[in-house]
Amino acid sequence: TDALVTLEVHNPSAFENAFRGRGVALSAAPLFLDAVAAMGPGPFAVVSPDPGGAKRAELFREALEARLGQPVGKAFADKHRSGGVVTGDLFVGEVEGATAVIVDDLVSTGGTLARAARAARAAGAAQVIAAAAHGLFTAGAAEALADPALDRLMVTDAVPAFRLPADARKKLQIVPAAPLIAEAVRRLHEHRP
Asked: Which end of the chain, N or C, is surrounded by fewer C-beta atoms within 10 Å?
């Protein structure tokens, strides 16, 4: 194997140290930037749904700010997991009147996403959308997506949404990952970064 290419790894540091060969971790951010930028002039605020995603959210915020040519706010929702119980009510940041964009790597049950969406709404967000590379949609995800605090969820087609019932897909926007992966393969073939 000359290279291992993956999309939106959960822990970039672990991925970088996991293989002896070349590893390329692609970010799904470029796939979501177009969709968010097309929503209009804003204002926007990017939200990290938990402490582990702060770096991912900040990189997306910086890219969105550069793309729009205007300031993009930021916010952070706290989350603690102990003994299978999730707690944490802290929400820091300015989202009042803005479209809050929650950025995460994956959606499993959707609990973290729903908590962050409710916190952003409580802080005054005009609209709440989310973007996650992988929609796993395990048990409970349909209920989380139905939460009125969340207006839309964008996921890539890297994982088919077959676990999610058809009636639960109303808020779902599926973004193709093929263009990003194809560009990575082309650049690897041409020996470019």
From this structure: C
Residue type, 12: P
Are 134 and 105 in contact by the 8 Å Cβ rule? The answer is yes
Residue 182 and residue 31 in contact, taking contact as beta carbons nearer than 8 Å: no
Q: What is the largest CA-CA distance in the chain?
A: 49
| Rounded-to-integer distance, Cα 99 and Cα 7, Å | 26
Instruction: Name the CA radius of gyration of the chain, rounded.
Output: 17
* Residues with active-site annotation: 79
- Sheet of strand 99-107: strand arrangement: 91-93, 73-77, 44-48, 99-107, 127-135, 152-156, 172-175
Q: State pLDDT tens for residues 30-74.
A: 999 999 999 988 899 999 999 888 999 999 999 999 999 999 999
Query: Is 184:24 a contact under the CB 8 Å cutoff?
Result: yes
Q: Classify strands 152-156 and 172-175 as parallel, antiparallel or unpaired.
A: parallel
The pair of three-digit structure tokens given for residue 121, joined into one six-digit string = 């709404």
Sign of CA dihedral 98, 52, 60, 113: negative
In angstroms, the CA 133 to CA 155 distance is: 5
| 14 Rama sector, left if φ>0, alpha if ψ -120 to 50, beta otherwise | alpha
Q: Which two tokens stand for residue 174?
A: 């599926």
Average pLDDT, the chain: 92
